[in-house]
Amino acid sequence: MAGNTLRDTCNLIADEEEDTGTVTLAESVDLGSIHEPSLIELHGAQIGKLHILGKPTMLLGRDSRMDLVVHVQSVSRCHARLEQHGDTILVEDLNSTNGTFINDSRISKGTLHDGDLLKVGGTILKFLACGNPETSYHDQIYHMATMDGLTRIPNKRFCLEHLAREMSRAKRHQRPISILMFDIDHFKEVNDRYGHLAGDRILVRLVQILKGRIRKEDLFGRFGGEEFMIISTETTEPKARRFAEKLRALVERTDFRVGDQIVPITISIGVLQMPFSITDPLLLVSMVDERMYAAKERGRNCVVAGT
User: Fold this and answer.
1) Residues 284-303: pLDDT tens digits?
2) Which of 226, 227, 237, 297 is catalytic?
3) What does the alpha-carbon distance between residue 177 and residue 167 come to, in Å, rounded to a whole number?
4) Distance between CA atoms of 78 and 76, rounded to whole angstroms?
5) pLDDT at 51 over 70
């Protein structure tokens, strides 16, 4: 976005109903883009989050449609504009409520140099110019905090925060979003019989075969232990249920091996399309979790959806 388009976006956002949803984490940083200039959050709701400045001109604000989202109430929905000029960033405040500050000085327009601090609302971000070695360091810390070490997919923290963001977006635009929760059946028995190292290899193999079947726009994460979550945007419950059945069948027909021995693995899946009346991510997780356990009570290796 550039020129009048940026201003038009801000005007559109200002005219809309206030959005009070809680959003705390954006998408994971692409490790290939860490040589771009960036802002690292030192104080705020997403401490350690690395915001890559990947466009010549970007909008910063609380609204999820901003190029750089800092989603706390003290930040205006369309707060500031950032323009790249070589190794510096020109910052323009867009009539924000609480102001924009560079190194504690309030500005209407100002320039960020490598190492400068940008304050918007109660959030403090440090500017790292292109090539600053701190960029790689902070990216690795963020990656470690949000990814599961064994399976290399998002962990529970990332799942919950991503879910909060997608719930807010789905409700605002009245678009469907469905959640799938699944658990490996009798996995304790697998660990007890073959050992935890074998169990870990089965978890990794399971993730490998399922990742290729999940859309790039959806999130697949490990919620804990042998429990996994899929957040599927623009997806109704009937469509999610059919997809869940395909995943269940794929796992059932896959040969999981420990040495020369085939270990039969199945999963039980709960499916729920988000009711727009639900605003708490933990409540939504609890609801879909109930359906997953209902699948186990029905004999496992099945899908349960609906209210």
Assistant:
1) 999 999 999 999 999 999 99
2) 226
3) 7
4) 5
5) yes
Q: Any residues with CB less than 8 A from the CB of 63 and at least 6 apart, and which?
A: 13, 19, 69, 77, 78
Model pLDDT, residue 132: 56
For residue 107, give every residue at least 6 positions away whose Cβ sits within 8 Å of its Cβ, in sequence order, or none: 91, 93, 100, 101
- Alpha-helical regions (H) of 127-186: 134-146, 156-173
Please give the helix or strand (H or E) that residue 4 lies within, else none: helix 4-15
Identity of residue 93: D
Residue 71, both tokens: 């989603």
At position 158, the amino acid (one-letter code) is F
* 3-class DSSP state of 49: coil
Cβ count near 27 (within 10 Å): 11
Decide: 165 and 26 in contact? Cβ < 8 Å: yes
pLDDT in tens, 92-130: 999 999 999 999 899 999 999 988 999 999 899 999 887
Instruction: In whole angstroms, give the CA distance from residue 122 to residue 141.
Output: 22
Element (H or E) spanning 252, and its range?
A: helix 237-253
Integer angstrom CA distances of residue 211 from 218, 247, 249 = 10, 10, 15
**Which CA distances in Å does 200 have to 160, 185, 196, 215?**
23, 15, 6, 24
* Contact yes or no for 107/101 (Cβ under 8 A): yes
Report whether pLDDT(143) > 70: no
Report the C-alpha gap between 306 and 270 in whole angstroms: 9
* Whether 226 is catalytic: yes
Cβ contacts of 205 within 8 Å, gap of 6 or more: 254, 256
Name residues whose C-beta falls within 8 Å of residue 279's C-beta, 6 or more positions apart in sequence. Answer: 21, 167, 171
Q: What's the rounded mean pLDDT across residues 261-273?
A: 97
**What is the phi-psi region of residue 265: left when phi exceeds 0, alpha when psi lies from -120 to 50, beta otherwise?**
beta
Amino acid at 6: L
